[in-house]
UniProtKB/TrEMBL annotation:
The lineage of its organism: Eukaryota, Viridiplantae, Streptophyta, Embryophyta, Tracheophyta. Belongs to the ATPase g subunit family. This is Mitochondrial ATP synthase subunit G protein. Pfam families: ATP-synt_G. The keyword Ion transport applies.
Amino acid sequence: MASKLKQLQSQACRASKFVTENGTAYYKQLLDQNKQYIQDPPTVEKCNELSKQLFYTRLASIPGRTESFWKELDYVKHMWKNRKELAVEDVSIAALFGLECFAWFCAGEIVGRGFTFTGYYV
């Protein structure tokens, strides 16, 4: 156990040394690559304006998203009406999707309880 701790400490030291040596260069490179997104001058007023633009743009996109939702729902209804003609591939994809949703639900419940497995007696 002590050797694992020493190994972890040495890896952490190496990682922090790497970040110390290369972090500034990476930061400058990242800013250079994305300078078209940087607002000059970076003022509080400009930040407030951009946040309002984002909010109202998202608000304006709601009708398009609801329309897409209803189209998807109509497609699912159509598939349910014609379920006798479904291929095995379509049914298996739907089953895997349902299983994935259930797994994410279970994972969320575990995380919500603070990573404790209560109620299960093993």
